[in-house]
Amino acid sequence: MLDSLHPTLTEAAITSVAFKLLLFPAYKSTDFEVHRNWLAITHSLPVKQWYYEKTSEWTLDYPPFFAAFEWVLSQVAQFFDPEMLKVENLNYASPQTVFFQRLSVITTELVLVYALHKLVASAPKGAQRSVAHAIALSLLLSPGLLIIDHIHFQYNGFMYGILLLSLLLARSPSTRLGSGLLFATLLCFKHIYLYLAPAYFVFLLRAYCLGPSFDLRHFNPDIRFVNCLKLGTGILGIFGAALGPFAYWGQLPQLAARLFPFSRGLCHAYWAPNVWAIYSFVDRVLIYVAPRLGLAVDTSALNSVTRGLVGDTAFAVLPEITPRMTFALTLLFQILPLVKLFAKPTFDSFIGAVTLCGYASFLFGWHVHEKAILLVIFPFSLLALKDRRYFSAFRPLAVAGHVSLFPLLFTAPEFPIKTIYTVVWLVVFLTTFDKLVPMSPSGRRFLLDRPSTLFIVVSIPLIAYTSLVHGVVFGDRYEFLPLMFTSSYSAVGVVGSWVGFCWLYFMA
Amino acid sequence: MPTTPRHKKTKRVTRSISFSLPTLPFPLASFVHPLRSSASQWLIVPALLTVAFLFRWAVGLGPYSGMGAPPMHGDFEAQRHWIELTTHLPIKEWYWHDLEWWGLDYPPLTAYHSWLLGLIGNYINKTWFQLYDSRGMDDDQLKTFMRFTAILSEYLTYIPAIVIFARVYGKQAGLSAYDRAIALGAILLQPGLILVDHGHFQYNSVMLGFAFLALDCFITDHILWGSFFFVLSLCFKQMALYYAPVVFAYLLGLCVFPRLDIRRLFCLGLVVVGTFSIMLAPLVLFGGVEQIGQCLFRVFPFARGLWEDKVANFWCATNVVIKYKKVFTPETLQRASLAMTLVGILPTCIILFLNPQKRLLPLGLSTCAWSFFLFSFQVHEKSILLPLLPATLLLAGSLSGDTISWVTWMNNVAMFSMWPLLRRDGLALQYAVMMLFYAWLMGTFHNLPQDLPSKAVHLLSYAAILGLHLAEIVVGKLERYPDLWVVGNVVVCFGCYLLAWAWLQKRMWTESLRGKSKAE
Description:
The complex is a heterodimer. Chain A is mainly alpha-helical. Chain A has helices at about 10-20, 30-45, 65-75, 95-110, 110-120, 125-140, 145-155, 155-170, 175-190, 195-210, 225-250, 250-260, 275-295, 305, 325-345, 345-365, 375-385, 390-405, 415-435, 450-475, 480-505. Chain B is mainly α.
């Protein structure tokens, strides 16, 4: 019985809703105003003008389905406070507006709850279902979503719900079409999921469009034409519904310009914990070391040391990074797992490939946002308890990924919430997982066991330093230091877990 | 999996975390459930404490009493003002300074507590506590600091007290570790105290914390330490006097039965007098003897009326029928209320005096405080916490369906009785969330009492609460009867409180008899 797993998903969901309701008065970032503005744009303007309106600096830069989603919300919003639906009411945040917008995040997150329910229900009874249940609870109560959606303000919950549903549908051959179509729909909600698209493409190609006896070397192109047709028309239909009207009005270039602003810098306002964060960190260190080694230091870049917080990073010693290079690296590290996926298109290697695609784009991408770490954590969670080795690779990611989100919230009242919630989540779920995870088949310890434990231990002084010690010792000075430590530390964790996961993926 | 028994790893195979078990009676139990096995039990108390912290802090994100409400603001301003007053003025002026602006009217330990918090606060930001200049300050940083002090004070007093209590009392009552953890969770998440201390803003938890530390000492037979802590509680907030008769009766009972123990009586007296002296010493040393008189005068305002705000006690509720303030003189009313209170507390005190069993203490504290709440004068709606919390502590001794249903019911009703206050503070959201969440967590509607009359009482009162809330939303304020919904609240809650009080009295009686028959 599904009901006999305690606490049930429903119970956990009710508790988390109660807690999230109490967070209504909490700090909210400019994303709150972004979404309010989109409510106003979609409600008060004809569709033709959605992607041209620019009264607010927060122009609509999500794909059309998300705009339509905002339009649906705005139909309800008018009963709460019609003032929030006026484009010229910039930074409008009446209590009703806050109430409505926050509540809409909680309500739409029910999609995620449903997806998690499916995750548990689809697991075989017994030990595996307990494991699925633990994973579902961990995702439902994820500190990532709490920080990003319910305090910072965004709508990731329901979109990750769609992603999970789509991933689950890929398990059985009979529902693979649904999986593909659902993912296409998701892309029309938020284009960040394009990062995961290569894995979907290869998997659906190999496991849905091609037959099991497909073999290039022996010229046996076992193509399933019916499946190709179904998937092709389905995807075309979905993209047609999303983009068709805009194509008809000749607005596609405008949409592309809004959706893909390539003019931004390599690192975001604050460094997402990826390879470039380590690169920047090394560069900063080299500024002090370089003169002794006889290396040239670009003095114009030195100013950005003190800025640290905002704007682009310029490198003083190391070579500049161009978008082209990041693109090439991302592609390279996406293609490697995809080759393996093509050769062995099982469900587990599909999830692994999705995870690795997420990793590659997060670690090497251009202008990566720290929030994108959920692209890795969510698919990885499905594999985290496969056996002890996977869990060893997952632990540093869970710690680093969530700790790296801390700088998103910098106001004092939210400080205890983000830290204590995350710490208690990590302790409870990592211990629970530790008890539930099956032994690895080889029986021996995995190479990541000790480093990952050490890594987790280091997080304690790090959190203490960034949150308390730094403020007491330096006050407002050297504000970039805690940020730099956080992102460098987290970067080590994310890279480490990536290396471990790659090892497992290619050795499996 | 083939494993050899000598391998240490074989232990790992037995899972010590299990989510599966037959349906549990209420959600709170379900949350504790996966951690109940011995290997993960160490996690339960820290996890409960952090969850309790998160809910407190999240409630604290909301507004506080008197936020942005000049000219007088509210309890938050009072507490802030006492901090600046104690850190900027010499002790001899504490009880005299500008009495019109939230003059200090709590006993000295509150003043010392404010002073201590002021030392920390002034270190962080001096502008928060400037005499005169900081009055009525509504600053986000200041709010965060004050919220932090409330939670810190609670985690140093009240929280350890109830952690110890749930453990010791639960063991004495023969509860399993799993049940003790559930009881602790139920007490930690009790919504009334959270909303008053971390929403409305006060430091009740310190007073309650000392009182419950005293209770901890009593149930572990450290009666001298117990009386020390109880005096601290009295010295923090005079409201602890609601408990005093019971504590007195219990201690006296211990000195008289089974045989007269003069030495013990003498030691107790010494501890009580000594603690009071230490508490008052700074006042006298730095301000002179006349400070004591002024302190007492400020702490016990006999000149005030029968009640201030509408409160669900006997006087306010029956005032609907008899207009006391018009018919009787204030002196008559004071005497009448004193007499009724004495009659109310007498049964409890007699039982505990004749049969001083530590097991009965939570019941005794609750019934005694409830008598004060129902019949004495100058009662505030927040005072319901005094009878309510010891009643909630009963869960630590028994998780029977009957106890859970009645205690939860009392908590639900008490939350409702504070609705007018919390609405004024702008805490409607926090009120609704915490009340419904706790009611759900304790399985209010799953765990109705077995017998029909009790069941009817519970269902009817829930219906009344729901009805009054709906009416207030749908109908709104009536021109002719602007207080209608508040009066309805008072009458319903008074009825419920009377029943709760009766239930506790009856339980006190049966429990004391049960103990006696066992002893024989």
